[in-house]
Amino acid sequence: MKYNKLHFYQEQVEKLEELGSYLHQFRTQKSITLEEVAQRTRIQARLLRAIEEGRLDQLPEPVYIKGFIKRFADALGLNGTEFASTFPTGEGLQLIKPSWRHMRAAQLRPLHLYLLYIFLVIGAVNGLSYLVKRSAIQAIQPLDIREQTYQLPAPENEQPREKQQRIAPNKATNVTQQAQDGKQVQVNVILKAESWIRVVVDGKTEFEGVLPEGTQRTWVAKEKLSVRAGNAGGVEVAYNDQTGKRLGAPGEVQEVTFAANPGVSNPN
Predict the structure, then answer these.
(1) I want to staple 60 with a disulfide (CB 3.0 to 4.6 A). Which of 64, 74, 183, 224 is the partner?
(2) CB-based contacts of 41: which residues, under 8 Å, 6+ apart?
(3) Where does a domain end: 50, 71, 98?
(4) Does an H or E element contain 257, and which?
């Protein structure tokens, strides 16, 4: 026969209260003290008192309680074996231990599973949406455009100087040298586009480097002045205040030489 443990414990408490109350009444009628019973049974008085008061929590295992009741009853002149036989000890009984499966809190109903499934789906969708948005933002971010400065290569068959001069745009540098006889060669150079140039004045290189667009320079020579450009289409040259002319086509390497005799120029 199967019993629930809680139900069996309650049955023991009720039976102990019933037997203990009877023993207490019978003992007082006989005017026997607990100390006398303790001496006869060799059971501590506190345990005998717990039996009379039905305090199961202050007593040992049920099988020992049954033995105490038997000896208690024998000491009072009762049939202890028969009297104690009604106290349940659980021998031969199969107790049912409660399982977590039977607990109400542990049972998941279909509604709970459905709600849990919804929360999982919502979490997955939100996570996927976040990843997609993040990827899209990274894809449309503007590229880091950095300003770069390029220099035109020096013309072929020419070895550029180790140190080149670079003049800021729209900044004109005027150099005037007077010859002893009053004659001179004056050349005004205007950069319509960035270009490498070399200027030789009276056999001496006065400038060699890259000039940016918008630069205007003037050189004066006593006898002869040569201008060589790596981007002839971007260099305009004016000789002795005459109308300026481009040295050549864009990207073309061209050199022109001006002599002290007015009106004479020797392009190479």
Answers:
(1) 64
(2) 48, 68, 71, 72, 74, 75
(3) 98
(4) strand 254-259
- What are the tens digits of pLDDT across the range 1-42? 455 778 889 999 999 999 999 999 999 999 999 999 999 999
Domain span including residue 211: 173-267
Q: Check which CATH number belongs to the domain holding 245 and give it.
A: 2.60.40
Domain-embedded: residue 168: no
Residues in the chain, overall count: 268
Indicate if the pLDDT at residue 253 is higher than 70. Answer: yes
Q: How far is CA 205 from the centre of its chain?
A: 62
Tell how many helices (H) and how many strands (E) occur in the chain: 6, 12
- Last residue of some domain: 36, 64, 98? 98
Number of domains composing the chain: 2
- Express each pLDDT in 110-165 by its tens digit: 676 778 878 888 988 888 888 877 776 665 454 443 444 444 455 454 444 444 44
